[in-house]
Amino acid sequence: MLNILIADAHAVVAEGLESLLKNKFNIVGVVHDARSLIDTAQATQPDVIVTDISLPGLTGLDAIRRIREVQPQSRIVVLTVQDDPQIAAQAFRLGSSAYVLKTSTGDELATAIQQVGCGNAYLSPSIAKGFINVLLESHNETRKSAVNLTVRQREVLKRLADGKNMKEIAHELNISPRTVESHRYEMMEILSVTTTAELVQHALRLKLIGS
Question: For the whole model, what pTM was predicted?
């Protein structure tokens, strides 16, 4: 049985979710603010976290980012009234595995939790079309931005993909490790990623470097 942590700013909603889900999952905690969510996630190490994207203590989607930093093995199901595909896309970029609207049925929420517990993703069908359009637009913009990578940045990127560290790359290109780090950071900004692994994966998908 999956271990579930529930977070919602409204106590009555959180308690309702607990009653709805407790027969199908093991509820390890119910919290109402971002700080408690982060602390409880670290303490209980749940399989799945069901959370709204607006919690006291952190604005917007920052809670998702923090959870992914401190508890990366927990899957995140966003449960929200926000039916904006742009927000859904941002939630997925930050590390959520599912985006479920609060207008959904209890069965749909349970399905989403079970799906992410198995390593899959889930998105409420009512915003799926808009979500796909947002991803396509974002992909096209990223490809356009990627064209602006300099020759030196591509040289650094190729060596990162080969698994070389900053000092090794600096030595090969006869530049300082600080300059290598600067190129890496600039490429991450251009390609809208947050880690070196994502940078390399994104570059491979865009065929900026060979596999």
Answer: 0.64
